[in-house]
């Protein structure tokens, strides 16, 4: 069970950091943010970056926090919400 976590965690952390850097760019200068490349939601910057930050924070949460049932449910809801968004975007494409 630890092997999948060890293989996927670095990619999740990298994506979470990318999302947070984009939030910083969007708050400083909205035209510099690149969230519209990977996130197809009808929101303007910086709100699009704030929306994406929910996923970034869920990806950067320490693994030990998932021991709590309530946090696990919230985290699963965030991931399922973004999965549904991705599936809708694939269907529209």
Task: Write a structural description.
The chain is mainly α and 93 residues long. It is built from four helices and no strands. The model has no long low-confidence stretch (mean pLDDT 85). Helix 1 runs antiparallel to helix 3.
In DSSP terms (H or I, runs of 4 or more residues), the helix count works out at: 4
Contiguous uncertain segments of 5+ residues? none
Number of domains: 1
Strand percentage: under 5%
Main sheet makeup:
none
Helix content range: over 70%
Number of strands: 0
* SSE pattern, N- to C-terminal: HHHH
What's this, in brief?
The chain is mostly helical. It has one domain (2-92). Helices cover 74% and strands 0% of the residues.
List the defining traits of the structure above.
93 residues, mainly alpha, 4 helices, 74% helix
Which secondary structure elements does this structure contain, and how are they paired or packed?
Blueprint: H1 2-28, H2 35-38, H3 47-60, H4 69-92
